## 1
Amino acid sequence: MTERQAIVSRILNFSCVDGPGNRLVLFLQGCNFNCINCHNPHTINYCNDCGDCVEICPTNALSLDNKGKIYWDENQCTHCDQCIDICSYRSSPKVSQLTVSEVLFLIHRQKGFINGITISGGEATMQLPFIIDLFRRIKSDSQLNHLTCFVDSNGYLSRSGWDKVLPYLDGAMIDLKSWQQETHQWLVGRDNHKVIDTIRYLADKEKLHELRLLHIPGKSDLDDEIANIARLICHLPETVQVRLNAFQHHGVEGEALQWEKCSESQMLSFYQSLRPLIPHKIQLPSVYV
Ligand code: SF4
Ligand code: SF4
């Protein structure tokens, strides 16, 4: 039987901001949201092999193979990102296809230095069968089963999807980008019914590690909807951490570059409105750049 593969845009051997402790993080290509304010817009779509980026590469790291598929030679790449800048399809040729065994090999190499692994994106759950196979094999490997398995997600996966991964999942970090349907639809291209259902469902299953709230002054509505947000959070276990993220311009393109960045004082004002309404731990951003 052929092994599951993932389309991977990046691997971080160590991260301390993608779940509890030190974690190896796998960023998967592809997302089912199309956020105006996306910080990694080149991770949204799978490459369509149009070849427009081939000629721009200064080191000849890109080519089209005899099947018309883009080929990226990582050894030739200087990571100048000119290919990403020229891609009008919000994609990247700099992805790798990794099997579950290849990822397990990387995890074995790091196992003495990490507390767990996190699958992020793009939207991690777009490649759910890979995640399930990977987590299942981590949990059944006597040298790896001390590692926790986390997912960082936009929360758009259905309950039946979550049910498939829950037996192997230790925790999830879920983003809530807006409260009102119209605002959410405008900001990400989809409504938030499934996101809010995911937050409640994972909390009910004791798998919600962190709820992330993105504050975009004057654009997202979380500050105007603080009472509704607090009501949602108050129904979650107090073990759920709330992380506040401040909108910045890093990686952003298009109209969102004209939007006001979230300053420390704006974030503190949001925090001070939320703090008295919920008993949960609230994590503020450590940097505003
Ligand atoms: S990365 Fe973008 S420009 Fe390059 S081949 Fe893929 S879709 Fe075309
Ligand atoms: S990032 Fe790498 S593949 Fe892309 S243009 Fe630069 S050298 Fe070429």
## 2
Amino acid sequence: MELTEKKVFQSLPILNEIVSNEMCVGCGACIAQPDMKENIEMKWNTNGFLVPDFGNAKSLPESSLSVCPFNPFPDNAVRTEDELAAIFLSQSPKRYNKIGRYYNMYAGHAEQFRLTSSSGGLGTYITYKLLENHIVDAVFSVTESSEEGKPYTYSIITQKEDVLKGSKTKYFPVSMAEVLKQLSDMEGKVAIAGIPCFIKAVRLHQYYHPEMKDKIAFLIGIICGGMKSRFFSEYLAAKAGANPALFFKPAFRVKDYDSNALNYSYSCEDENAKLYQIKMAKVGDMWGTGFFKNNACDFCDDVAAELADITLGDAWINPYEQDGKGTNVIITRSALADKLLQDGLAMGDLTLDHLTEEQFIQSQQGGYNHRHRGMKYRIALADKNDRVIPPKRYDKEQIPFEFRWVQKMRMKVRTLSIAYWKKERNIWRFDEAMQDPLKKLQRYTALYHKIRRLKNKVQRVAP
Ligand SMILES: Cc1cc2nc3c(=O)[nH]c(=O)nc-3n(C[C@H](O)[C@H](O)[C@H](O)COP(=O)(O)OP(=O)(O)OC[C@H]3O[C@@H](n4cnc5c(N)ncnc54)[C@H](O)[C@@H]3O)c2cc1C
């Protein structure tokens, strides 16, 4: 790709703007570009997210901006996930609005890894099989970190015996910057696991560096209902009775095998390895409220990790959600991904049911309602504040006033949760301060549901 002087110059101010407008997800692709001259690192910002620290950088390569999943001025050829999917997943035989291109959809689990994983263990199983079958030589996965204040990080797994290090969902900010920086010098092929915006950054990286198409041979997409600030983990540690300034090994999805899948706990340890644990049901709704969420996630419409070879999420539908051992929803988007599943089924490694498109959408209904239906209104609000939002596909839906109130209040609750926890890390004062905004959000949400039910009733009886 030819670099123009103008674009080289522009990358830096635009990326600075993306960071200051809270539109950065911390993937780190921008600072891991092969032609990057500056030594730029990811740093914690005051809101508890990892962002690039451009410091005294004079300029950045054009590709730094081009690979940003929240670049407000993308090239037309890679304008949205749709164009990228047409380039990278053109072989997929089926396509469904809101889900993307695919081969097959399943709900299921991996016998060997289910109990030690967050959902059905497919994330760990696929990592294992990619290494065992020598499809790749390394997998970039999120594992424990030995760095102080950073319990988790992206690292490189090369041995199938090490796959358990990557198991379990970490609702904690991580960045791919350091592993991506090593990519050009690595021998062989790699696979990368990531949430949808990280997967998009990797696809953009492949597009602008075609030699990466073969080198990055497989992408494991992890469905994401919103990236959380590190404050989320601190708050949960305090709720569980630990010191939010000194805790270790946060575990976000401790299963209760005898209960339903939603009834999971958070746990962490103190410096003496004493365990603290709390049921998430006791903490309250941490997802629908937008608590500690990255602002950028309100401007992401890729619910289903549409650019990955395989998409993995939680089967939040009956009968699967009744089983506390955990079940994945799975979408295969490449022939290789589907073969791995069919082979696993034939060998008895996997238990799989076919899912319909409607069932998949139902399993992520809350995500679709918020991210797709509310997008146009949130963009309008962002426009008022002169925020430049990247092109979106689901930005046309007019929503009624009662859902607008919910949207506006969710955005407020998100902002306040971060602002209050930043001010004082004290659960009692935090909960007290959040009480009124949360009550308001609950009232608006109840009203929205009531009006929706009434409208549905009227529609049903109308001639
Ligand atoms: C921030 C976040 C929000 C999520 N929201 C939803 C949601 O709304 N709906 C839903 O259905 N599922 C969601 N998930 C996915 C879900 O929690 C499980 O991770 C997924 O179902 C895979 O489970 P598994 O048992 O197959 O994975 P495991 O076998 O436990 O393996 C975990 C895999 O996830 C990767 N991983 C762990 N943490 C991260 C991270 N922070 N960033 C990138 N990759 C990571 C690991 O590298 C590994 O590949 C979310 C995950 C994250 C990280």
